[in-house]
Amino acid sequence: MTITLTNESAVLVLPEDLIWSDELTWSAVAQKTERGIFGTLIIDAMARNGGRPITLQGDGDSAWIQLGTLRTLKAWSSVPGLRLTLGLRGEPFTVVFDHGDAEETKAMAMAAVIEYSDKENSDHYCSLVLRFLEASQTL
Q1: Quick check: 12 and 72 in contact, CB under 8 A?
Q2: pLDDT value of residue 55
Q3: Which strand (E) or helix (H) includes residue 69?
Q4: Beta strand pairing status for 84-88 and 3-7?
Q5: Mean pLDDT of the residues in the chain
Q6: pTM, 2 dp
Q7: CA 83: distance to chain centroid?
Q8: pLDDT tens digits for 31-47?
Q9: Chain centroid offset of residue 39 CA
């Protein structure tokens, strides 16, 4: 099934073999527990509104993508808070790039299929990883 990323009227078609690696690990419930002064367990729970991680990644040598498309993705990821529409499995998700709070957590990762000194937009990269956060519909 086609995977797309849309920024207003610009649509990028992403590799179909990207895997949604954290699809079932996120919880829609936030919870915190603590003990009261008499030892009673106090549980605070609430529904989360947005923030679901969507990590799309290739498996080894899969998820080939052209450098020109990567350059567009990089430009989009450089805009703080840019909301995009991710079309995944026939369902639209409003997302922002997840830049994380650690240097090793990046919105994008990839590896060149063949390293060229003079890269062209048609050169391919693989093992693509894209990290998004699902954004709530309201600010």
Answers
A1: yes
A2: 94
A3: helix 67-77
A4: antiparallel
A5: 88
A6: 0.82
A7: 12
A8: 999 999 999 999 999 98
A9: 41
